[in-house]
Specification:
This protein is mainly α. It has two domains: 1-29 and 83-128; 33-81. Helices cover 74% and strands 0% of the residues. The chain has six helices and no strands. α2 (39-53) runs antiparallel to α3 and α4 packs across α6. The model has no long low-confidence stretch (mean pLDDT 91).
Amino acid sequence: MSDEHKAKLAQGRADAKAVKGYLEALRANKPKRGRKRTPDSINKRLGTIEDQLADAEPLDELKLIEERRRLHEELESLEATVDIAELEAEFVKVAKGYSERQGISYASWREVGVEPAVLKQAGISRAS
């Protein structure tokens, strides 16, 4: 394998990593239906669960413990911030070449949630 071929493979892996990181961030930050939970509302529910655990039947206790575990995970994810601007900038740098090499259309990018303005910055048009 030539050095040029190895460099192209490495570039492809780096491009795929940038695209994947951006798409994962979009998915993680996608608005969910219903009322948005806040750290305060989660903490309030955790307090209620602790009160209910004292007198809970075994099956109810199991369900409450599972809910408590999931609420703690949700609280951690709310506190973890992702710099989507940085991921977006990396995406913009590589998206056009990646899209051409992989045969990905403008419509497909839109369907997974990439905004038109981001695609325009990346040089991907509807005609792509």
